[in-house]
Write a structure and sequence with these properties.
Number of domains: 3
Structural class: alpha+beta
Distance between the termini: 61 Å
CATH superfamily of the largest domain: Cupredoxins -  blue copper proteins
Largest sheet: 5 strands, mixed
Number of helices: 7
Order of helices and strands: HHHEEEEEEEEEEEEHHHH
Helix content: 25-40%
CATH class of the largest domain: Mainly Beta
């Protein structure tokens, strides 16, 4: 690290002015230091070139200087060495701090009994969190539902959507590892927590990892930092950092005691989590984007309904068009539960 206390003081002042918290997560201070170091070196280099340029342009402007012949300028060794060596040093400093900081958050911590590992799934336009089973075998699954807020002609929200309902619950001062992916039929998202200086792409069919360790209890915003379609700006969630005792109490609770946004693994939840309700009514004859599913169990067998979910273009109902409904690659257990719900409403 730079031993110049003055420089560090300027960098800390910059963080304060920008409203940054240098201690929210384990690598905030290093990330911010690298960022502001880049900024101030760039400002110094910019001014060292632009300020003299304006000065000489003013000093030797046409109405103040007579035209006269000057000798041919060949070189200026000192100046040429300066504008070569100084930028090289600046780039080396950039690389050192940038690489050091990158390695810090790219190196996963050792998994211990205290480490919290959470599976994160990003899909249009929602985040879903799945925790390991607690001591009673219950698995917390949070989020996975998307409903766009309804606004009037003046932009006032008249019906709340699901934006920000889902939340990642973690204990303070604990290593948290996120294992992130997206469904194969979805698009790339990017899990971004500004307060932690943490961002990682979430890629369909692949698993990416990121980690953090937060030292302050509180709520922190989560955004999608990769444009992912029409409702990209609504893909919003939160990280709720809790005291360790509070987190342990929450983690060991059953579904009746879990926070808002936590959905049990049943047919109704799967129907909501996968966005089925956006296109299909199940308790009325109303036709939305797709046909109504009311009474569908009496019309079609289980295999047909399963195929309609996994390969919807194979047999498109009359009056509708192929390509509208995406194929869903659900785990076998989830698929069976969802089909049963469609057949029986339970």
């Amino acid at each position: 690290y730079c031993s110049c206390s003055t420089l560090r003081g300027v960098l800390r002042m910059s963080n304060t002015l920008e409203g940054f918290s240098s201690s929210a997560s384990s690598f905030n201070a290093d990330m911010d230091f690298a960022f502001w170091l880049h900024v101030w070196i760039s400002v110094a280099l910019f001014l060292s070139v632009v300020a003299p340029m304006f000065y000489f342009a003013w000093k030797y402007r046409a109405d103040k200087v007579k035209n006269e012949d000057v000798g041919t300028l060949t070189h200026h060794t000192t100046l040429e060495l300066a504008w070569t060596i100084i930028p090289i040093i600046a780039v080396m400093v950039f690389f050192y701090y940038g690489n050091t900081t990158m390695q810090m958050f790219r190196t996963m911590p050792t998994v211990t009994d205290d480490t919290v590992v959470v599976k994160v799934e990003g899909s249009k336009w929602k985040w879903k969190y799945e925790y390991p089973a607690n001591s009673s075998g219950y698995v917390h699954k949070i989020g996975g539902v998307y409903k766009k807020p309804v606004m009037d002609e003046n932009g006032k929200v008249i019906e709340e959507g699901t934006m920000g309902i889902s939340a990642l619950y973690v204990p303070v001062d604990t290593d948290v590892i996120l294992e992130m992916t997206a469904p194969v039929n979805d698009v790339i998202h990017s899990y971004y927590i500004p307060a932690f200086r943490m961002k990682e792409d979430v890629v369909p069919g692949r698993t990416t990892k990121q980690w953090f360790n937060v030292s302050k209890v509180g709520e922190y915003d989560v955004e999608c930092a990769e444009y992912c379609g029409t409702d990209h700006s609504y893909m919003y969630s939160k990280v709720v950092v809790m005291e360790k005792a509070d987190y342990e109490k929450w983690f060991e609770s059953d579904k009746e005691d879990t926070p808002k946004g936590n959905f049990p693994k049943d047919g109704a939840a799967l129907y909501a989590q996968n966005g089925c309700a956006s296109c299909h009514s199940i308790d009325t004859d109303a036709v939305l984007v797709g046909p109504s599913l009311k009474g569908i169990g009496a019309k079609y067998d289980t295999k047909y309904l399963s195929d309609a979910i996994t390969n919807p273009d194979q047999d498109v109902p009359e009056g509708f068009y192929p390509g509208i409904m995406p194929a869903f690659n659900l785990p076998a257990e989830d698929l069976a539960t969802l089909v049963k719900y469609m057949e029986t409403g339970k």
